[in-house]
User: What shape does this take?
Amino acid sequence: MLKIQVEGQMEKIQPFLSDLKQRSQIELLENQQVSEKKSQCEDVKVTCYVHHHSRRIVKTLQIHAENGQVIDLPLMDLIEAEVQDGVKIFAGRSFDIFG
Assistant: This one.
């Protein structure tokens, strides 16, 4: 397990943490936030505990079709991004074991 501490304005830290969570090699376990007032702007300290998986991880994306069929897509380095509430984009690398 690794411990990462990030300091700065929350508007800059939040996108960084979102990018960190999207990486398939990094599993974000917990984060703790501590606020400190400095001058007129508010700085935040965020401490994160992560597991770094150095090898490529294959995850399976399941798609449920309207007709009830379930499609499994094994993908390496799967990245999930929520572009708006309830709308997500998935990206990854597919492979062919017979190719």
Summary: The beta strands are 2-8, 26-38, 41-52, 58-64, 70-84, 87-93. Residues 10-22 form the longest helix (13 residues). Helices lie at 10-22.
